[in-house]
C-alpha cells in the first residue's frame, strides 16, 4: 500500500537518506528499526511531505503521493510524530474534535465514541487541557486524533519514548488491538521487544538505507543483525 523507491532526502545541504526503499503492506504492521541518527524519522517526514524528496518516488495506494502534508493526510495517512504535537492550550475534547470535524463524516469508520472505547483514559480527561496530561495520555491523545482522521495507514514515530513501563504495556495492548482489527501501521521504534512483538515485517535502517529486511520472527532469531545494526 505504501512503497518507497530509492528515496533521497535530508535537511538543506545535509543529505540523510541515500536511496532508501521499503514497502508497507495492507493489513500488516511494518517496524522500522535502526540506531539513533540512522534516518528513521527523516524517512517518515519525507513520506509526510515535511521534507523535500530529492530523488526516488513514493507511491501510496497505487498513485504517486501528494506533495502537501494536508493532501497526504486526506489521501489516508495519519502521522503521529515523535513530538506528539497535540494542542496544549486546547482540551482533550477540542483536540479530538478538530480531527473528527476535518476527517469524519457519516460514513467514518472511527467516531469519537469508538476512539474513547479504545482509550477509556481519555474519556475521563475530556475537559482537561492538553498541557495537563501525562506523557502517556498525550501519546494516547495523539494516536486517538490520528484514528479520527480515519486513515488507511497509521504512522507512529517512537510511540514509547519517555513513557513508564506500565504505560508502554498499555500502549502495546492497544496497538495490538488495532492491528488485530486490521489497521495497517508503520512504527519507528527504539524498543526492540515492543516493535518486534507488534510487527509482521521489519526493516532495519543504517546510514540512510535499508540494510536488512525480513519478518519480525526472523529478526528476533537473528542476533547478528541485532548486534550489528541495533546494538541490542
Ligand atoms: N532538523 C535537522 N537538521 C539537520 N540535520 C538533522 C535534523 N534532524 C535530524 N538531522 C540529522 O539527520 C540524521 C538522521 O536523523 P533521524 O532523526 O532521521 O534519525 P533517526 O533514525 O530517527 O534517529 P533518532 O532515534 O535519533 O530520531 C542525523 O544525523 C541527524 O543529526
UniProtKB/TrEMBL annotation:
<dbReference type="GO" id="GO:0005524">
    <property type="term" value="F:ATP binding"/>
</dbReference>
<dbReference type="InterPro" id="IPR003439">
    <property type="entry name" value="ABC_transporter-like_ATP-bd"/>
</dbReference>
<protein>
    <submittedName>
        <fullName>ABC transporter ATP-binding protein</fullName>
    </submittedName>
</protein>
<keyword id="KW-0813">Transport</keyword>
<comment type="similarity">
    <text>Belongs to the ABC transporter superfamily.</text>
</comment>
<dbReference type="InterPro" id="IPR052156">
    <property type="entry name" value="BCAA_Transport_ATP-bd_LivF"/>
</dbReference>
<dbReference type="InterPro" id="IPR027417">
    <property type="entry name" value="P-loop_NTPase"/>
</dbReference>
<feature type="domain" description="ABC transporter">
    <location>
        <begin position="2"/>
        <end position="232"/>
    </location>
</feature>
<dbReference type="InterPro" id="IPR017871">
    <property type="entry name" value="ABC_transporter-like_CS"/>
</dbReference>
<dbReference type="InterPro" id="IPR003593">
    <property type="entry name" value="AAA+_ATPase"/>
</dbReference>
<keyword id="KW-0029">Amino-acid transport</keyword>
<dbReference type="Pfam" id="PF00005">
    <property type="entry name" value="ABC_tran"/>
</dbReference>
<keyword id="KW-0067">ATP-binding</keyword>
<keyword id="KW-0547">Nucleotide-binding</keyword>
